[in-house]
Each structure stands twice: as C-alpha cells, then as structure tokens.
Specification:
Chain A: This is Peptide ABC transporter. The complex is a heterodimer. By secondary structure, chain A is α+β, with helices and mostly antiparallel strands. Helices cover 30% and strands 21% of the residues of chain A. The two termini of chain A are 18 Å apart. Chain B has 2 domains: 74 residues, no CATH class; 188 residues, Orthogonal Bundle (MetI-like fold). Classes of the chains: A alpha+beta, B mainly alpha.
Chain lengths: 520, 317
C-alpha cells in the first residue's frame, strides 16, 4: 500500500491555468464568447476508471470475454452475491435459497425490486432470464445452466429450479453472468438483443458506450441497497495500453486503474498518489494438453513436462515475484485449497530426464500455441528454456486468443495451449471445464479414468468440508495423470486514487465499484 | 482548354482509377490478415456450430467477390457498412473519432512548419558554420528519435513531474477549446519532432541552392535588405520543395498517430484502426483505411494544384 499523500493542489492549479489560458486562445481564434469550465469541476461525483479492454457486449447472456464483468457489475445485480475474500455465497436479489431436496432449489426474491426501466423484477422476470440464458441461440452461457431441468415461477417472488441431478454449485453459478438479471421488457423491445441498450437492476444505469473509448453509467435512484452506489456517475475509460492507464491515474486524470502488470507496480507505489491493492486471484496460468495423441498420450512425458518447470523462478521472472506458484487448481488463500496436493508435481529436473528416458526417448518434441501479447511470449520463452534443459523441445506458434482456442480445442491441430483458466465463483466450475468428459475444453477430449465420478461428487457435498474433500480427489487424479500443467496464480493489482476509499478487492480479480466513495 | 485546366482535368481523371485500385488493395489486404473474423466474433470458447452461425449471420460465408462488390456498391453511396463488433455505422465511428486525430495532426504540422522553416532558413544563411552543423545534428537526431519514446519522456516530465499538461485523453474542441488544445500539445510535440527535422533539412538545402543563384546575387547588388531577400524571394522560390515536404509530412503524421494515440489514450482513428485490426473487424479496417487513402489522394491533388499555382511550368507539363 502506498502512503496517503494527497495530490498537490498547486499541480491542479498549474494545469487549470494552462487550460484557462489555452481556452482563451482557442476561443479568441474562433471568435467565440465565454470560457469552458475546468475539467476538475466537471468531474464532481464521478469515478473515472481506466479499463484495459473494451467490453464485447453489455448483455450478460451474449458476452464473449472474461473482461466484460467489470462493465456488467455496475448494470446488473445477480440473484446470489459472494463474499469478496472467501467467495462464499450470500444473498443478492434473492434474499434466500433453499434446497427443497437434492435437486430442487427454491429462490425467494426480495420484494419490490424493479429494473432500471421500472419493470418489476419478480419471479416471472427471473424465469424469463434463466430460460433465455439456457436456451436462446445467442446465449454464450448455456453451459453454465446445463444442469437445470426447468424453472418455474411458483409465487410472485418465488422461483423453483429443478436440477437434472443433485448439484450444490447452482447458488454460486447464479452469482456469475447466468444470475445477472436483465429487463424482459427491454429484451423484448430490442428483438432479443440488449447488447447496446442494457437495462438491468444494478447500482448504476447505462448512460453511453463509445466503442474503445468510454462506457458511462449514472446512479440508479431506485436501487434496493440504500446509500449505494456512493458515487453518482461511473466512467469506464477504455485504455488498452495499461502503462498509459497507470500514468493517467498518477496524473489525476483517472481514479482507478485495473489489471496493472506487476512490472508497473513500483511506479504506482513511488507516486504516493494512489493506494495499490495487490490481491491473490483464482485466475490460473496453465497449459492445456491434448493427452490423447502422441507424444502426450504417455503419462511419463506429461509428468516430465510438469516436473521440468521451476515454478518459483517462473513466477519471479514473469510476474515480478507477485504471482503464486501453482501446483494445484486453487491458491492457498482459497477454502478449497488442499496443501496435501502441493508436492505431486514439484520441480525435479533429474526425475523429468529419467521419465523421458523411461518413455523411450531422452528428447521429446510436441507442438503448441500461445497468445501474441508481450507477457504471453515471455511466459513461453521462460518455459521453453526450462524444458530445453531436460530435453523437451516444443514447437510453439503464437495466435490471437480466439484463434489459439480454435486451433487447440476445436481444430485440434496442436498438442498444447499455453493459456489460463479464468476465475469462477464455484470451485467445481474450473475442474468441470478442463477435465469433464463432455466439456469442449477437456484437452484430450476423452474421459480421464476416475474423473467423472470425482467431478459429480464435487457438486454433491452439502458442507464446504465435504466439497473440499471431493475437489481434492478431482485434483489428485488430474495431477497424478498430469493432464494439465498448472503454472501460477495471477495476482490482481488495482490502484485507487487517494481521493477515494472503500474499494474491496476480491478473489475473482474482478473489480466492483459501488462501495467506493470520496475519501473523508 | 487552357494549360491549367487541362492539368487539373488530367489529375482528376487519374483520381477515380486510383481510388478503385485502392479499394481492391485494401479489401485484398484485409483478407490476407491471418485469422477468421467469425472466430473472433463468436468469442474465446465458441463451438464450431456457433462459429458457422456467426459466419452466416454476418454474411462472411459469401464469395469474396460478392462481399467486395456489395461493400463497394454501398461505399459508393456513402455507406461504409457497419462495424461487425458494435453494429454501428463505420462512417459514424470515423466521424466521431476523426476530430481527435485531426487536432493532433494539425498541431504537429503547424509546429513542424513554425519551427522547421525558421531553423532551416537560419542554417542556410549560415551554411557550414557551427550553427549549421548544430541544426543538422539536431535534424538527424529528430529524424532518428522514435516518437513513442519522446512521447513517454514528455509525459514523464511535463505531465507527471511538472504537471503542466494532461498526460492522457482528449477533449472535443467544440465543447472546451482550451482543454482540447492542452490535451493535444504533448502528442503534437511528440509527432512534430521528426517533422521539424525534415522541414528544416529540406528548407536549408533548397535555400542554399536558391541563395547561390544569379538573381539573388543581383538583388543583393541592388542593395535589397537581407531579410527581404530571404523571406520574399528566397522562400517563394523554395515553395515547390516546401509543398512537397508538407504533403509528405501530413501523410506520414496520419500514419504515425496510430502509435501516439496508444501512448496518450486518444480516441482517434488510429486507435480505432488498431482495435479493429486486432479484433478482425474488417468492415471498420476497410472503412478507416479507405478514408485515409482518400485523404492522402486528396492532399496530393491539392499539392499538385498548388504546384501549378506557384509554378505555371508544372501545368504546362
């Protein structure tokens, strides 16, 4: 955390003086009367965020990118919320949820809820949203609700959800995009589309979206949480060059910058003008392996690939030492983390060499794809050097995110993909995604012995302890079979101007802004 | 038909085939960009079925010639199609973004001329002196200096350390002229460094040649004042050279804004182009490149007309 030094008023005055002077000059040139108000005065009650991506859409059902969440949270409340530091479920739009039996969940909504356009947010609206999310051809979140058999409005504020089988993961699934409620009136008026005219029930209402430049929001005066949001207007400025975003916050032109690379953190710390939040995250850098094809269909080769990686060094070099080396699916801070799994794939180059020899060749080559950004290329180079030392020489090419996914998951033209799995609110969602037999993101596209039963068990346990035990079994199978290569957990670095306070980081690494207020 | 009119007609008649050729090249180049726009539009983890659905939805499954023909026909009627990502008309996106780019480019051109011309003239009048050597060294430095590096140095000192000017963003000139100019100063300086160097070098070498000519010697012999010889006769006679430099300068600056807009987070057409190219938003890439090509062609036409105006021998061919 940085100190609480305030931005010098003299600096603001200097900039304003320049601006006034130039205003005069500019107007004189145009022959116009009057003078523009200074930028600082126009910004009262505005929280300005430097966001690193442009949203793919503002409809939670049709979103195409993990970067959308920061733009969706201000607009849409979820049926279930989560505790920021533990990700335990807590009441959201639904004030309670009850398992009537192992496969029937009853949600009880808060009374009197409305969307931004005045449409009642009742049981019928929830049914409309859930049915749309799981069946609309444009929905990209059908998979999240694949376990839902039916949704019924069984009272004005009561929704009954029948599941295909016993499943404890639904509440947290409803804390993600699948649980974001949009106005049925707006969806019908838009012919099924609200990509550009989103209407939710969140703390802010949509104001405007200038592509790749700005997404602006205004306070929702009828928001059910009194006193929230604490800032009237939210402006998310799209600045893909994060170093530029960092400079804009230091210069006082923005108030928040997100997704700061570790290398930029010292600059923020030194400025003394911001508070820097460095938080562990569930976002896991990893390598997907196609374990169905040679040479990666040999578990000894896959184990050698894992054992050749010094994850401490990897984290130090690629993440400035701020990331957490990963030998399991969950970071130490998370309730589902099991320290007993930590030693299955620890660094052991000699053993890696021995395994390769045992597999029949002291030298192995496989193909792979990685992303094109600078950090991804650096990660790739560090790994290749570690592998080279034990006799593994992969041929990796670079491609954009969608193209890399297409090449590995769908066209299956390469053996591996150096990528990541984004943070998910329920701990069973990530393993289901990468190890599930029917998941398109199972690198080998085949069943992993013993995995299906273990995965099913991970969603059944009624207590966290029971679920943790089941999740440990899932991870043990995956690590012993070496069907993936965990590398490091990302660290979420977010800087907030000293003029504001109240930001609460979370394990998902997805910032929320409604609690941020002007510093007293 | 007079010589000037014939010249203008000749130039204009070359205009349309060049534009048509440019559209074919732009369309062809965009198709050569690796990657499939349907894959991008369908998202990070889309299924094959979803990708095919998106391909059909956006007409990307049609033959290339049909896609090109449809796009050209619409473009001829002023419709540059819609962004594949935002569904907004490309023309509207360009109109929204262009002022932010224009203010920076105009600022850079003005700065290049305001500093470069006097510097070049001063060097020419003191040819082979220490001052001349210093100007030439500065010019070489200016040409070699990467604009993004200078931009970051300027931001660090002027915006962050001294806090004199904004570090990022832009403001519409129509809503707050002073803020708009303040936001454009640092990007314009970063862009203008190479322009100043280029203008001063060209002015110097052209002026040295002019100052050595017989008529200048005659003017001196007649006792005309030095500044009058320089500004009234010298400068006029390097007009064609200066025009060429300015034309090339504007073309180059339009291209260079792509980098500068990223460094200063300016929502101009450069950043629009970069984002569209990364996301395979072909409609926007085609539209922006076409508009940039049109601007360059129009600029070249204006420069040609001005050549003819300054030196009638050009029009006579």
């Amino acid at each position: 955390m940085s100190s609480n030094t305030q931005r010098p008023a003299a600096a603001i005055r200097r900039r304003q003086a320049m601006s006034y002077g130039l205003s005069g000059a500019g107007l004189a040139m145009l022959g116009l009367p009057g003078i523009a108000a200074p930028a600082a005065a126009q910004q009262a009650g505005v929280l300005r965020v430097s966001a690193n991506v442009n949203p793919s859409t503002l409809d939670p059902a049709t979103g195409r990118s993990g970067g959308d969440h920061q733009f969706l949270y201000p607009l849409y409340d979820t049926l279930v919320a989560w505790e920021p530091t533990t990700l335990e479920p807590r009441p959201g739009l639904a004030q309670s949820w009850t398992y009537k039996d192992a496969s029937t969940v009853v949600l009880e909504l808060r009374p009197g809820l409305t969307f931004h356009d005045g449409t009642p947010l009742d049981a019928e609206a929830v049914k409309f949203n859930l049915d749309r999310n799981r069946s609309d051809p444009k929905s990209n979140i059908k998979v999240d609700l694949a376990g839902v058999e039916s949704v019924e409005a069984t009272g004005p504020t009561t929704v009954t959800i029948k599941l295909k089988q016993a499943d404890q993961s639904l509440p947290l699934i409803l804390s993600d995009r699948a649980g974001m409620m949009a106005s049925p009136t707006a969806i019908k008026a838009g012919g099924g589309s609200i990509d550009r005219v989103p209407v939710g029930a969140g703390p802010w209402k949509f104001a405007r979206w200038d592509d790749n430049a700005l997404v602006a929001y205004e306070r929702n005066p009828t928001y059910w949480r009194k006193g929230i949001p604490k800032v009237d207007r939210l402006e998310m400025k799209v600045i893909p060059e994060v170093s530029t975003g960092v400079r804009s916050v230091i210069a006082g032109e923005n108030d928040v910058v997100v997704a700061v690379p570790a290398i930029q953190k010292p600059l923020l710390d030194r400025s003394g003008k911001v508070k820097v939040f460095t938080t562990p995250s569930l976002y896991l850098y990893m390598i997907y392996l196609d374990f169905s094809k040679p040479p990666l269909n040999d578990v000894r080769v896959r184990r050698a690939i894992n054992l050749a990686i010094d994850r401490e060094v990897y984290s130090k070099v690629t993440m400035g030492g701020l990331g957490q080396p990963a030998t399991t699916l969950f970071p130490k801070e998370y309730w589902a983390h099991d320290p007993a799994l930590a030693n299955i794939i620890t660094y052991d180059p000699d053993k890696a060499k021995a395994l390769l020899k045992e597999a029949g060749s002291p030298s192995v080559t496989f193909t792979g794809v990685a992303y094109t950004d600078q950090a991804a290329v650096q990660r790739q180079e560090v790994l290749m050097e570690m592998w080279r030392r034990v006799g593994i020489n992969p041929k990796i090419h670079n491609a954009s995110v969608p193209e890399a996914s297409q090449a590995f998951f769908f066209n299956r033209t390469v053996n591996s993909m150096l990528a990541a799995i984004t943070a998910r609110p329920d701990p069973s969602m990530a393993p289901y995604t990468i190890f599930g037999k029917d998941s398109p993101y199972n690198g080998g596209h085949q069943e992993i012995p013993g995995m299906e039963a273990a995965l099913a068990a991970s969603r059944v346990g009624a207590t966290p302890a029971a679920r943790k035990e089941a999740l440990s079994k899932v991870q043990r199978i995956a690590l012993e079979q070496a069907v993936f290569v965990p590398l490091a957990f990302d660290v979420s670095i977010i800087a907030l101007s000293n003029k504001y306070a109240g930001f609460q980081p979370n394990l998902l690494g997805r910032p929320r802004y409604e609690e941020i207020a002007a510093a007293g | 038909m007079s010589g000037n009119a014939r010249f203008l007609w000749r130039r204009l008649s070359q205009f349309l085939p060049v534009i048509l050729l440019a559209t074919i090249v732009v369309f062809g180049l965009v198709q050569l960009i690796p990657g499939d726009p349907a894959v991008t539009l369908a998202g990070e983890f889309a299924t094959k079925e979803r990708i095919e659905e998106v391909r059909r939805l956006y007409g990307l499954d049609r033959p290339l010639m049909v896609q090109y023909g449809a796009w050209l026909w619409d473009a001829l009627r002023g419709d540059l199609s819609q962004s594949l990502l935002s569904s907004k008309p490309v023309a509207d996106l360009i109109i929204d973004r262009f002022p932010a780019t224009l203010i920076v480019v105009v600022g850079a051109v003005l700065l290049s001329l305001a500093v470069g011309i006097p510097l070049g003239m001063a060097a020419a009048t003191r040819a082979r002196s220490r001052f001349d050597a210093a100007v030439m060294a500065f010019s070489s430095f200016g040409v070699a200096l990467p604009s993004f590096w200078l931009a970051m140095v300027l931001v660090y000192w002027v915006a962050l350390s001294w806090q004199l000017l904004p570090a990022t963003g832009s403001v519409p000139f129509s809503s707050a002229p002073g803020d708009a100019i303040a936001h454009a100063i640092l990007p314009a300086i970063a862009l203008a460094a190479a322009g100043i160097a280029e203008v001063s070098r060209q002015v110097r070498s052209a002026l040295i040649e002019v100052l050595a000519s017989d008529y200048i010697r005659t003017l001196r012999a007649k006792g005309l004042r030095r500044w009058r010889i320089l500004w009234q006769h010298g400068l006029k006679n390097i007009g064609v050279t200066l025009l060429t430099v300015v034309g090339l300068l504007i073309n180059r600056l339009l291209g260079a804004t792509v980098v500068i807009e990223a460094v200063f987070a300016i929502p101009g057409i450069g950043s629009l182009l970069v984002h569209a190219a990364i996301n395979k938003d072909f409609a926007v890439v085609q539209g922006v490149v076409l508009v940039m090509v049109l601007i360059v062609i129009c600029l070249n036409l204006i420069v040609d007309f001005l050549y003819a105006a300054i030196d009638p021998r050009v029009a006579r061919g």
